Automatic annotation (TrEMBL):
Keywords: Isomerase, tRNA processing. Pfam families: PseudoU_synth_2. Residues 14-173 form the Pseudouridine synthase RsuA/RluA-like domain. This is tRNA pseudouridine synthase C. Transmembrane segments: none annotated. InterPro entries: PsdUridine_synth_cat_dom_sf, PsdUridine_synth_RluA-like_CS, PsdUridine_synth_RsuA/RluA, RluA_PseudoU_synthase. Responsible for synthesis of pseudouridine from uracil-65 in transfer RNAs. It comes from the Bacteria.
Length: 257
C-alpha cells in the first residue's frame, strides 16, 4: 500500500490545504522529466480521486503549506487573489551568519527559464522584495571555514513578490545563504550539516499562509508544522520554540519559495 506523503491541514467544499514534505514536486516539470510522484496526484487521492488545482508553487526541496482548490471556480478566484497580492506567506529558514535584526531585501531578479532548453535565452529582470526578521542566533565550536567557530541564524521571511527561487537568491544576495541550498548556498556548510545529521535538506519551510476564502467573507489562516528532519537540525539552537508570525500585517504579500 502506498503511503500518502501529504498531511491534510484544512479542508472545506472549496479548498484542500496540505503539508508537502521536502523532496516532492508539486506537479510534472520539464526540469525533472523522469519523476513519477507529485503532490498533485497525492492531493487528488485525498480528494477522493477528484481533480484538484494548485493555487501556488512550492519548490521541490522546500517543505510546508500548500493550497489546492477543489473546483475550477475557486482556482480562478484564488488566482486573481494571487495576482492582487492578497495571498500572504510566512517562511522559516536557517542561514549562515548573523543577519540584521530585521530588514527589507529589495533586489530585482532575472527570471529563470522553467525549461532548461531555454536557459540560453535572456530573461527579463523583475522587481523582487522580501522582508525578514531574525528570530535566533547560534555559534558552534566548529571551524568550517577560516574561523574557529561558525555562526548561524533562524530568520522568518515574508516575500512581497513571487519570483522563482526568490528567497534563496535574496538570502545569497545579502551573504546569508540558506543551509542546504545546493545552488545558492555554501558547500562546506551544507556538507557539515548533512554529515552531522545523516541527511542533507534545504532548511526552508513554508510555515503559514493567509488568504481570502474564495466564497465566504472571511480569511483562511493555516499553519504547517515543521518536518522532523527540519526540527532535528534546529537542535543547534538550544531552547528555540517556533510560532509562525501572521504574514501580511507588517509585511507585504507574496508566494515565492
Amino acid at each position: 500500500m502506498v503511503v500518502n506523503p501529504l498531511t491534510e491541514l484544512f479542508r472545506d467544499e472549496q479548498l484542500l490545504v496540505v503539508h508537502k514534505p521536502a523532496g516532492l514536486l508539486v506537479h510534472r516539470s520539464p526540469i525533472d522529466r523522469h519523476e513519477t510522484e507529485f503532490a498533485l496526484q497525492y492531493a487528488r487521492s485525498l480528494n477522493g480521486g477528484e481533480h484538484v488545482y494548485p493555487v501556488h508553487r512550492l519548490d521541490r526541496p522546500t517543505s510546508g503549506v500548500l493550497v489546492f482548490a477543489r473546483n475550477p471556480e475557486a482556482a480562478q478566484t484564488l488566482g486573481k487573489a494571487m495576482m492582487a497580492g492578497e495571498i500572504h506567506k510566512t517562511y522559516l529558514a536557517m542561514v549562515r551568519g548573523w543577519p540584521p535584526e530585521a530588514g527589507l531585501i529589495d533586489h530585482p531578479l532575472r527570471e529563470e527559464a522553467v525549461d532548461r532548453r531555454l536557459k540560453d535565452q535572456v530573461q527579463p529582470v523583475k522587481d523582487a522584495r522580501t522582508r525578514f526578521r531574525t528570530l535566533a542566533t547560534t555559534e558552534i565550536p566548529v571551524a568550517i571555514e577560516r574561523y574557529p567557530t561558525s555562526r548561524y541564524a533562524l530568520v522568518e521571511l515574508f516575500p512581497e513578490t513571487g519570483r522563482k527561487h526568490q528567497l534563496r537568491r535574496h538570502l545569497k544576495h545579502i551573504s546569508h545563504p540558506i543551509i542546504g541550498d545546493a545552488n545558492h548556498g555554501r558547500g562546506r556548510h551544507n556538507r557539515y550539516f548533512a554529515e552531522r545529521f545523516g541527511e542533507g535538506r534545504l532548511m526552508l519551510a513554508a510555515t503559514r499562509i493567509v488568504f481570502p476564502h474564495p466564497v465566504l467573507p472571511e480569511s483562511v489562516d493555516v499553519q504547517a508544522p515543521l518536518e522532523a528532519s527540519f526540527l532535528e537540525v534546529l537542535s543547534v539552537f538550544p531552547g528555540f520554540r517556533y510560532e509562525p508570525a501572521r504574514p501580511g500585517l507588517q509585511t507585504g504579500s507574496g508566494s515565492a519559495g
